[in-house]
Write a structure and sequence with these properties.
The chain is an all-alpha fold. The chain contains 13 helices and no strands. It starts with 9 loop residues before the first helix and ends in a 28-residue tail after the last helix. Keywords: Nitrate assimilation.
């Protein structure tokens, strides 16, 4: 696989650079490609600040250098849209999709636990998992923010590193469904990610529909909900639109 181009801004290049504990079931090339896919998903789900926007062409080149796969194709489709938008339009769309809508917020423990005491414990467990692996998240985001979880998965590998993604598979499916229903190009990033994980079972899909209809547990413990609006069953959840 071709290395990332040297012209990629330093911040972007650092975030994308593959550094992975390679599992025995994957060849080194496969492990590197998987880690890069996860890192690219992490990057593309971050707020589109000026530096990220400046790296769009290089990000597209990084995706083009990946081995052909459905996930790489989904990211290529997203980047074709991403490259053609003005920075302010990208910012507005990101805020609308991820900050103002509960069904497509990026804090994974919210879908499993809502604003309950169990969510606080889940956040603590994630933080401990990161520290045990020798990884310092920093103070910018909560440990369940999807780009953070993806970065850890890329660093620690498909076993323990991707365990939080598998644990929150239903939440990820709900986000994908909600983005598909809204017609957001970010649905392609979620489709790429979900395609790397075990497919949802019928029980998973039924649970996603219930979650979309009823929302997560509602015990209030002082955590601010991430986003506004109501939970309602998204039609996209009834049929896999990937």
């Amino acid at each position: 696989m071709s290395p990332l181009p040297s012209s990629l801004p330093a911040m972007v290049r650092t975030r994308v650079r593959a550094a992975v504990l390679r599992p025995s079931r994957l060849t080194p090339e496969e492990a590197e490609a998987r880690a890069l896919l996860l890192r690219l998903c992490s990057l593309l789900l971050q707020y589109p600040d000026r530096e990220l926007v400046a790296g769009r062409a290089e990000l597209a080149n990084a995706v083009a250098a990946l081995p052909r796969s459905r996930a790489a194709g989904e990211l290529a489709v997203f980047l074709a849209w991403f490259a053609g938008q003005e920075g302010e339009a990208l910012e507005r769309h990101y805020v609308e999709m991820f900050d103002l809508r509960r069904r497509s917020g990026l804090h994974l423990t919210y879908y499993l636990h809502g604003d309950t005491r169990r969510r606080g414990m889940a956040l603590l467990t994630l933080s401990r998992r990161y520290r045990a692996a020798g990884w310092d998240v920093g103070g910018g985001e909560l440990p369940d923010h999807l780009p953070v979880v993806l970065e850890f998965a890329a660093l620690a590998g498909p076993g323990g590193g991707e365990a939080p993604l598998r644990q929150h598979r239903r939440g990820l499916e709900l986000i994908r469904c909600a983005l598909a229903e809204a017609g957001s190009p970010y649905r392609h990033v979620l489709a790429a990610l979900c395609g790397l994980l075990p497919p949802p079972t019928r029980a998973d899909l039924a649970a996603v529909a219930r979650l979309a209809a009823d929302g997560p547990p509602a015990e209030e413990v002082g955590l601010t909900p991430y986003g506004y609006g109501e939970f309602a069953p998204p039609p996209a959840c009834q049929e896999d639109s990937r």
